[in-house]
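Box 4.2: Ligand-aware structure prediction
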Amino acid sequence: MNNQFITYLQNRFHFFNNTYFEIEDGWFEIIKDMALELNDVVDKNFKIFEIKQKYGSMRITTFSDYNKQAEDICNKYEIKSQDICEFCGIYGEQKTCNNWVYCICSHCENKIRRL
Ligand SMILES: [Zn+2]
């Protein structure tokens, strides 16, 4: 994810301070929505360690005491990401391109296949 997006998130939500983002820009909007929901249920010890992409789905690793509400919110957005192109944020679906599974729209798929 680009640095501008990462800085935006880190300036607004303490739990992104040391997060390792290994995803494309298209999921920025759902990450922002998720952060707003998390903000209401977590304390200052809650941290997001990593957000990455696996098999076309967002995977979130957190560091905190057990917090069922936070866990449910993360799960909900991991499922949401499975319908959103990770490159541009419009509707996408799971597809294999260049031996890697992405959640991707047909426009971005065509771009990637040409690389
Ligand atoms: Zn796309």
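In the box above, the bound molecule is zinc ion. The first strand starts at residue 20 and ends at 22.
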